[in-house]
Amino acid sequence: HALQVLLIFAKEDNQSDGFWWACDRAGYRCNIARTPESALECFLDKHQEIIVIDHRNSRYFDAEDICRSIRATKPSEHTVILAVVPRTSADQEETSVLPLLNAGFDRQFMENSSITACYNELVQIEHGEVRSQFKLRACNAVFTALDHCQEAIEITSEDHVIQYVNPAFERMMGYHKGELIGKELTELPKSDKNCADLLDTINTFIKKGKEWQGVYYARRKSGDSIQQHVKITPVIGQGGKIRHFVSLKRLHCTNENNKQVSYFFHVIIFITFKSHSFKCKNRRKDSTDVKSITSQSSDAPSLQTRRYSSMARIHSMTIEAPITKVINIINAAQENSPITVAEALDRVLEILRTTELYSPQLGTKDEDPHTSDLVGGLMTDGLRRLSGNEYVFSKNMNLSHSHLSVPNTINDVPPCITQLLDNEESWDFNIFELEAVTNKRPLVYLGLKVFARFGVSEFLNCSEATLRAWLQVIEANYHSSNSYHNSTHAADVLHATAFFLGNERVKGSLDHLDEVAALIAATIHDVDHPGRTNSFLCNAGSELAVLYNDTAVLESHHTALAFQLTTKESKCNIFKNIDRNHYRTLRQAIIDMVLATEMTKHFEHVNKFVNSINKPMASEETSLHSEGSDCECTANMKNFPDNQTLIKRMMIKCADVANPCRPLELCIEWAGRISEEYFAQTDEEKRQGLPVVMPVFDRNTCSIPKSQISFIDYFITDMFDAWDAFAHLPVLMQHLANNYKHWKTLDELKCKSLRLPSEN
């Protein structure tokens, strides 16, 4: 959640600009209001965390009146309001801040239009008051949750003085909270059914800071003894001392009536986890899972069948969202469940609350070492083991190559390149031929053609010369020494993105700004890639890994460097002529798409696309077909920016790893290139004494067919089924089926190379 800031300035000046660009630097979302009415309306709509009000001149509006009107609203209790006051001269006495505080302001800021000064002020507010407000807001939410919780909850101080009980506790024990709060536990009547030393045992545990749970008899206000399952957790506070004890209590039921409930929820949990773990199994075995439901009848299904095959697989995916619904059901089940079931469900909840719900859990490495290594290399940030050997790669900041003269206009492109580019709208376009005739500079030439086709220069209001200079700068910062992550890969991803943007379903779902953002994101998405994975950089303690805190290291670098290169010089700044609102929106869209290519959230992106795009669309198609009308499923897509974001993410993800869906010869070439890059990484890890994150990619022992099969099974099939169900891409799906068959044949023949011996 990006912090939101509201600037209330009657007129735009250096001060308002200073705060605007400070917000941009800090990554905050910023709105500007000119009048008191629009300010209040904007705040009630957005609920910004920080409001900056111009208090320097009362000619246009009364800043204190605006502050009071905002403070009169409920959402403002969690908002920090800053007054910009005029700078005082040296001989003037500084005015009191009390009138501002009385009006509802939290702070004052002495007029200073420096972006750095504004940035420092906003960042200090975020790290101080705003974070404190977040904690207070969270506390309110926690107490609301406790009040509605079905479990009886009691919170006591370290001296066992009752400080809080929830309504469920009141109902269970028969007391009103006013009768309990402030009393010591020793003042309440005890049941005589407990073992004599049980209280001593409990105290021994919790005084050592350990959690205790077990069965305990408690006495209700009426005098009845009830058997409870109790869990007491010590809460460690300041200084490492125990500050509170939290007790969770449930009735301990042993009667037969709970067996049916218990069985029912065992069935729910069994189904949930079978559906969650099916992806862990062999992806091509004859079981009725997502991949085989509609593909068992024929080894070579028709293209139309393949289309419905993808749609059927989408319908059969059992991905739950939001997960909180499941958690709530389980919590309700625990209320009257026997202790064994309740404890089992506690374990279930622990698993469901992890952050890796979207990532299938793999079995042992012996089951599929290729998949395990791919996941380890692509979906983690390494083992975090720092080494004295820091991996530093040089940034290629050259702005031109010497091999081939750059055309002055698109019309100046050499005939051999023009002839090749005539076919660039075809999915089977051969990017390697373009690489050869352009002396490894395909990105500039393909970029000029594609960007012209989509009217990028017109949208950005920049000249063709500026666009050409920008493409040169970006391509110059790809490493031609990389076997895979070079400008040819960037051109290939740009080509795939343009192909997808030409698809009717995609085109009908996105705006022109989305198209421009997607093409730019594809162009820059791997700029300055060192030919090593994020895991490698983290393990090596590289400068980039340290800079980006081991999180989305390369993807963050690609976007940051691309914007730095773009804005460094006017001659290649393609954004210089668009207004800042457009720039801000475009920039956010580009960043979001490039970050989506990072693989740690692969399954999250795919599953969100399935749940938010595929399934609703499939339901709509079904109902429309039953009514005999044509499907207009994308008609309202533009009204849902979140859905547009999911489509853009899915599009660039598919474009980035579309190699297995290319014609066989291209697929084989890409497989050889990526394998060589991984081999080189393994060689370097061994030389430097770093952890080897993908051991199967040893050039002496690796089976490339096995690695391709694992990659397709684990990452590609589900994603392209979902994308095909949305966009209908029969050519791609046919190539994928053919290529998979090629790799399976090689694997069955124990061939570790790219082709059969007879084909070499």
UniProtKB/TrEMBL annotation:
Cofactor note text: Binds 2 divalent metal cations per subunit. Site 1 may preferentially bind zinc ions, while site 2 has a preference for magnesium and/or manganese ions.
Catalytic activity of the protein: 3',5'-cyclic AMP + H2O = AMP + H(+)
Binding site for AMP: 485-489, 526, 656, 708
PAS domain residues: 145-188
Enzyme Commission code(s) on record: 3.1.4.-
Cofactor(s) this protein requires: a divalent metal cation
Pathway recorded for this protein: Purine metabolism; 3',5'-cyclic AMP degradation; AMP from 3',5'-cyclic AMP: step 1/1
Transmembrane segments: none
Annotated signal sequence range: none
Keyword Phosphoprotein annotated: yes
InterPro entries attached to this UniProt entry: HD/PDEase_dom, PAS, PAS-like_dom_sf, PDE8-like_REC_N, PDEase, PDEase_catalytic_dom, PDEase_catalytic_dom_sf, PDEase_CS
UniProt entry keywords in alphabetical sequence: cAMP, Hydrolase, Metal-binding, Phosphoprotein
Top-rank taxon, per record: Eukaryota
GO MF terms held by the record: 3',5'-cyclic-AMP phosphodiesterase activity; metal ion binding
PDEase domain boundaries: 409-750
Binding site for Zn(2+) 1: 489, 525-526, 656
Catalytic residues of the enzyme: 485 (proton donor)
UniProt record, GO biological process: cAMP catabolic process; signal transduction
Record-listed Zn(2+) 2 binding positions: 526
Family statement drawn from the similarity comment of this UniProt entry: Belongs to the cyclic nucleotide phosphodiesterase family. PDE8 subfamily.
Protein purpose: Hydrolyzes the second messenger cAMP, which is a key regulator of many important physiological processes. May be involved in specific signaling in the thyroid gland.
Protein name in UniProt: Phosphodiesterase
Lineage: Eukaryota, Metazoa, Chordata, Craniata, Vertebrata
